[in-house]
Specification:
Cofactor: Mn(2+)
Largest sheet: 6 strands, mixed
Strand order of the largest sheet: 3-9-8-7-6-10
Structural class: alpha+beta
Distance between the termini: 74 Å
Oligomer: single chain
Number of domains: 3
InterPro entries: Aminopep_P_N (IPR007865), Creatin/AminoP/Spt16_N (IPR029149), Creatinase/aminopeptidase-like (IPR036005), Pept_M24 (IPR000994), X-Pro_dipept-like (IPR052433)
GO molecular function: manganese ion binding; metalloaminopeptidase activity
Keywords: Hydrolase, Manganese, Metal-binding, Signal
Strand content: 5-15%
Signal peptide: 1-17
CATH topology of the largest domain: Creatine Amidinohydrolase, Chain A, domain 1
Shape: globular
């Protein structure tokens, strides 16, 4: 017997009858504590890897590598718990969360970019196909966080699958992700009238919809109607981002894997450096080493900047020749199983530091180590940033670069050499959870970057020193 976690107790899984034009559903099941048996996953390729088709990547019960149906269900449970706290005192209202997937984007008329799912959508269900909708709906007569999760996904279409590859369909979506019900995308129109009801509070990011076409087709008119009702539309993005700030042990393991393979790629790229060398060669070497070790894609276009080109914080042309005696900065990372890394390193392209380069490199490294000692619960990225500026100001004086810097101008001088922040949150995205302020107290489970003076400072300081 498969047992499931409800809001208050364990109950046996019971498959319900089909509804809404024959959706595949299991509406009595709540928060699976065990995976759906492997035999229930269709014995065919889906729109993403499954334990049946990719046993080298996923164990039974996993939706994405390392993350189980249980983990995704508990995330949805936590979100509905937060909504319950947000709506206490509002009696007699239903709560419905709607999240849109990303669309497929095109670089030209019919040439698509590699698809990348909206991270908030992905965080709550793990489904990796475009043109999909996730709905979390409170249950009549039951208190939140009790709810049902529904996916609306593209219909299986042999003619399109011939060109674009297999789709999961409703049966594949429910078996893979463990949501309670799954429908074809067109069935969402039957849910819209219920969402218009005065008694229904809609949680939906109408100001920044992830999928413009789905918003136009299904949600735009709905949000206009809801804006005039007593239960208006409420944004959900910040609630999801707040949950994403704290990583679970499984998430941290995924991030450690991404960080380790990126570190190995950096080492191999350093070994491949020579003088002179083209930035494009180091770019290609870094990407190859990441992909060869299991990365899905690069997390962002890397910066491979020789000499004074490191002055440009987001230099991504990577098409110049790095000369003998110059330093090279590589700011790169990869994405592995939905989680990313972000590492920056600077080294002499010929393998030998000059005396000024070595002195200044060690100065920046010491600042970073001092900043790392501040990373503890209760402090914040803003606190670490202030300390970084203070440390840079001190180093400028010690090195004789800022002899005329007055104490009250130390921060201003430091910003000249380090015009960026000390770091940011890291997770499913490089600049993860962008709506979360850097002033938040750090908590166990948060992942941050600490990158003082990562680019402009070393070149300018070397130039001044010499």
């Amino acid at each position: 017997m498969l047992w499931l976690l409800s809001a208050t107790k364990l109950v046996p899984a019971i498959a319900s009858a089909r509804s809404l034009s024959g959706c595949v559903s299991c509406s009595q099941r709540r928060y699976s504590l065990q995976p759906i048996p492997e035999r229930r996953i269709p014995n065919r390729y889906l729109g993403q890897p499954s334990p049946f088709t990719h046993p080298h990547l996923l164990r039974p019960g996993e939706v994405t590598p390392g993350l189980s149906q249980v983990e995704y269900a508990l995330r949805r449970h936590k979100l509905m718990s937060v909504i319950h706290k947000e709506t206490q005192g509002q009696s007699g209202t239903d709560q419905t969360v709607v999240l849109l997937s990303n669309p497929t984007y095109y670089m030209s008329n019919d040439i698509p970019y590699t698809f990348h799912q909206d991270n908030n959508f992905l965080y709550l269900c793990g489904f990796q196909e475009p043109d999909s909708i996730l709905v979390l709906q409170s249950l009549p007569g039951k208190q939140l966080p009790a709810h049902k999760a529904m996916l609306f996904v593209p219909r299986r279409d042999p003619s399109r699958e011939l060109w674009d590859g297999p789709r999961s369909g409703a049966d594949g979506a429910i078996a893979l992700t463990g949501v309670d019900e799954a429908y074809t995308l067109e069935e969402f129109q039957h849910l819209v009238p219920k969402l218009k009801a005065e008694t229904n509070t809609l949680w939906y990011d109408w100001m920044r919809p992830a999928h413009a076409q789905l918003h136009s087709d299904y949600m735009q008119r709905l949000t206009e109607v809801k804006a005039k009702s007593k239960n208006k539309v409420r944004a959900v993005q910040q609630l999801v981002q707040h949950l994403r700030l704290i990583k679970s042990p499984a998430e941290i393991e995924r991030m450690q894997i991404a960080g380790k393979l990126t570190s190995q790629a950096f080492i191999e790229t350093m070994f491949a450096s020579k003088a002179p060398v083209e930035e494009s060669f180091l770019y290609a070497k870094f990407e190859f080493e990441c992909r060869a070790r299991g990365a899905d894609i690069l997390a962002y276009p890397p910066v491979v900047a020789g000499g004074n080109r490191s002055n440009t914080l987001h230099y991504v042309k990577n098409n110049q020749l790095i000369k003998d005696g110059e330093m090279v900065l590589l700011d790169g990372g990869c994405e592995s199983s939905c989680y990313v890394s972000d590492i920056t390193r600077t080294w002499p392209v010929n393998g030998r530091f000059t005396a000024p380069q070595a002195e200044l490199y060690e100065a920046v490294l010491e600042i970073q180590r001092d900043c790392l000692t501040l990373c503890s619960p209760g402090t914040s990225l803003e606190n670490i940033y202030s300390m970084m500026l203070s440390l840079i100001g001190q180093k400028l004086k010690e090195l004789g670069i800022g002899k005329n810097i007055r104490e009250n101008n130390a921060f201003k001088a430091a910003r000249k050499y380090c015009p960026h922040h000390v770091g940011h949150y890291l997770g499913m995205d490089v600049h993860d959870t962008p709506d979360m302020p850097r002033s938040l107290p750090l908590q166990p489970g948060m992942v941050i970057t600490v990158e003082p003076a990562k680019s402009k400072s070393l070149y300018l300081m070397c130039k001044t020193r010499v």
